Amino acid sequence: MDSIHIQGGISLQGKVRIQGSKNAALPILAATLLTVDRSYLKNCPRISDVYAMISLLQRLGCIVVWREDGLQVDSSKVGREAMGGEAVKGMRSSLCLLGALLGRCGEVLLEHPGGCVIGERPIDLHLWALEQMGAVFLEEEGMIHGVAKELRGADIILPKPSVGATENIILAAVMARDDTCIEGAAVEPEITALCRYLQCCGASIDGVGTKRLVIHGGGPLRGAEFIVPTDRIVAGTYLLACVGAGGCILLEAAPAAEMEAVLALASQMGASCLATEEGIYVNASGYPKAVEHLITRPYPGFPTDLQSVALAVLSAAEGDSVIEESIFENRFRVAGELNRMGAKIEQLTAQRVVVHGVKRLRSAEVFAMELRGGAALVTAGLMAQGETMVAGCPYIYRGYENICRDFRELGARIVSV
Questions:
Q1: Could you tell me the CA-to-CA distances from 211 to 71, 116, 363 in Å, in that order?
Q2: 406 near 238, Cβ under 8 Å?
Q3: Dist. CA 232–CA 389, nearest whole Å
Q4: Residue 39: count of CB within 10 angstroms of its CB
Q5: 133, 149, 249, 262: which sits with the fewest CB atoms below 10 Å from its CB?
Q6: Neighbours of 140 (CB within 10 A)
Q7: 266-272 — which CB contacts under 8 Å span 24+ positions?
Q8: Alpha carbons 109 and 98: distance in angstroms, whole number
Q9: pLDDT the model gives residue 79
Q10: DSSP labels, 38-80
């Protein structure tokens, strides 16, 4: 199914349960390689990126089985194998296999990872950090070959809070000799989830949730049962879509404690949000209000993964808004497609746009070029009058289990074809 058809202009009503987190599940799946036992991951999202990671784990010798409420991974017979093929080229998160395979096998060979085209996202920081722990890397004909005769603990000061580099260091460090200290670690909730899973497996990690992590290495690790947390980006997508389309919804199990920046933005745009034990209630009526200056920042700031959706909503806000992207240099590719829907987005620099709010977006045939931009176009389609067709939807399915089903539960007229 390559396209999504949306009959827009309908306010959202009802409730939807938020899926498990993509950005937590993928590094945790990589971490299962570090055990010689079975792990059971409840609430694991059934998205294409997870299926791609499962394929990689199976090629390494893992036995992976879907159960009713989760995913069982048996890593007792893992062996060395090159990580080639389209699964690695298309998924940035395969990069976390660097730390995991160095920790399990002492060697890794994989193709240069890919993913969405939203910026350069160099991997130099990952390789540099793992080299501090004794790994040696060579790049040969598009392949990354890493070897570590023995991983050893190290004091690593990250020059910027890279989520991927932090995850790779953690994955390698739990199996390394002696202790590893990470200064300047990223503090995203998905890193906390990875640490909690590893702690369930027997790892000793201090400072979880802070910028200073101390990992006491040496293993061995056992399998564990773990509940993957709900996805704050999916919850934020549906919340902002309600702000744009109007309505009253309940986002069941939405992780409100991880969404303070998103809730603050929704309040600025005129919506009312209430966090309870059930989830987040969202009430939005009338046109959203413009915001003076929205800037993406590492957690706990406003997430870059929701910048495109915010851009779509602010396209039909009352007044002008400035959005600044501080994480990736190519996040505004969706602006051209939104402009085809009647938005007036003026790109000032590669990192900054001004959004001149229009009264109403109009329907159009548009094309998703990456995951979050695709979700933004679906949001714009819900807001627009008439029928919008979004093509390129395999990008969207990388992060959303069933975005059409979820929005239908909220009363939208939307189908995938």
A1: 30, 27, 45
A2: yes
A3: 26
A4: 26
A5: 149
A6: 8
A7: 266/239, 266/240, 269/243, 269/313, 269/314, 269/317, 270/243, 271/242, 271/243
A8: 8
A9: 73
A10: EEEEET----HHHHHHHHHHHHTT-EEEEETTEEEEE-TT---
Task: Spell out the domains of the chain, with CATH numbers in brackets.
Answer: 3-19+231-416 (3.65.10.10), 22-219 (3.65.10.10)
How far is 39 from 34, CA to CA, in rounded Å?
11
Neighbours of 79 (CB within 10 A): 10
Q: Tens digit of pLDDT for each residue in 271-325?
A: 999 999 999 999 999 899 999 999 999 999 999 999 999 999 999 999 999 999 9
> Could you identify the residue written with the tokens 């900054």?
352
**Eight-state DSSP code of residue 225:** E
What number of helices (H) and strands (E) belong to the chain? 13, 23
Strand partners, 367: 391
Of 44, 62, 116, 404, catalytic? 116
Stated pTM of the model = 0.95
Q: For residue 322, which phi and psi values (nearest 5 degrees)?
A: -110, 130
pLDDT above 70 coverage of the chain, percent = 94
Helix residue ranges, H only, 136-246? 163-173, 189-200, 232-245
Residue 29 in contact with residue 264, Cβ under 8 Å? no
Looking at residue 58, its amino acid is Q
Evaluate the omega torsion of the peptide bond into residue 300 and state whether it is cis, within 30 degrees of 0: yes
- Tokens found for residue 339: 């402009």
Residue with structure tokens 């600025």?
268
- Please say if the pLDDT value at position 45 is more than 60: yes
Between strands 70-74 and 136-140, the pairing is unpaired
Q: How does residue 93 score in pLDDT terms, banded at 50, 70 and 90?
A: low
Q: Cα Rg for the chain, rounded, in angstroms?
A: 21
Annotation marks residue 242 as catalytic: no
CA distance 110 to 113: 8
Compute the C-alpha angle 7/13/18, nearest 5°: 95
